[in-house]
Design goal:
With 294 residues, the protein is of the alpha/beta class. The protein is built from nine helices and ten strands. The chain has helices at residues 28-35, 45-61, 112-124, 139-149, 174-189, 219-231, 233-237, 241-248, 256-263, and strands at residues 17-24, 65-70, 85-88, 92-93, 108-109, 130-132, 158-164, 196-202, 269-280, 283-292.
């Protein structure tokens, strides 16, 4: 067996680095389908085929830490206290009980050292983060992990969960989420550990779960959103909430969290993989993997 020694000069400090961004819907029905072994069924087969290359990509990429930007759906915070932005700094985050008992997925391991560094950096950078010493993670966080990692005995990386309020009006603007992503990048890149970090933006795409327009799906909007998110993120960041509500339905507002992921990447990126499928539950499903251009 060959032993490769990585010799490093004493003055060379390896910093953490965001090496890829992933956008994915976090539909709870996907978690239920995975947990109940239904991905082989005809309804789920096209979805299973579409996420397979992303799972392969992730198996190759092997991040040390995933920063997962998602919204808590009144699972951990309840409607009595709703932080606009929160960061989980605990050692562990248990799957939340969303009414049917917690999902039987591994406990999510945190990275307190990185999380506290990111919290400090973001707050010094004028983002008023709520610090969550305890956080149960609902489908918003665990479904994206299941989509990308499958069903391992333990999740193969640490997770820094960052919650964005999109369930109680008023949510933060797209441009604020984009700026948050830029600040997360500054935070990660000033952390003195050699860590391969992948950032997730979750939620969406178009869907509305309530009211007269329940069932709204607008895949042309979602496709154009993704095209612009990749190539012209600042134009997407400038879009008002009303555009999401009108074009993508009331829960389409979850897409602002994809902007936080996008803000942590270079202006110029390559899209390594994209998959879209309609319907997944009541939504238009979308997945993108982007990397900074070399
Ligand atoms: C559904 C989608 C979501 O993003 C969510 O948080 C809850 C439900 C759905 O399509 O059923
Ligand atoms: Fe959601």
């Amino acid at each position: 067996m060959a032993i490769v020694l990585r010799v490093r000069a004493s003055w060379e400090i390896r910093m953490a680095k965001i090496t890829a961004g992933i956008g994915t819907s976090h539909v709870p029905a996907i978690g239920a389908a995975i947990d109940h072994k239904k991905l082989e069924q005809p309804y789920w087969q096209p979805f299973a085929d579409g996420i397979a290359p992303a799972r392969e990509w992730m198996a190759q990429h092997q991040p040390d830490v995933c920063i997962v930007i998602f919204n808590d759906h009144a699972s951990s915070f309840s409607l009595e206290l709703i932080p606009t932005f929160a960061i989980g700094v605990a050692d562990q985050f248990a799957p939340a009980d969303e009414g049917y008992g917690p999902r039987e997925v591994p406990v999510v391991n945190g990275h307190p050292e990185l999380a506290w560094h990111v919290a400090e950096s973001l707050i010094q950078d004028d983002f008023d983060m709520t610090i969550a010493n305890r956080l149960e993670v609902d489908h918003g966080c665990t479904v994206p992990l299941s989509i990308l990692f499958g069903e391992p005995e333990n999740w193969p990386c640490k997770v820094v969960p960052i919650c964005v309020n999109v369930i109680q009006y008023p949510p933060p603007s797209g441009s604020r989420c984009y700026a948050l992503g830029q600040a997360i990048r500054r935070a990660v890149e000033s952390f003195e550990q050699d860590l391969n970090v992948v950032i997730f933006g979750t939620g969406g795409m178009s869907h509305q779960l309530q009211g007269e327009r329940a069932g709204v799906i607008n895949q042309p909007f979602d496709r154009a959103f993704l095209d612009a998110l990749v190539d012209d993120p600042e134009s997407v960041a400038a879009r008002p909430h009303t555009e999401y509500l009108r074009e993508a339905g009331s829960e389409g507002i979850e897409l602002v969290m994809w902007l936080a992921m996008r803000g942590a990447m270079d202006k110029q990126v390559d899209e390594e993989y994209r998959f879209m499928h309609v319907p997944v539950s009541n939504t238009s499903y979308g997945l993108t993997i982007i990397k900074n251009k070399l």
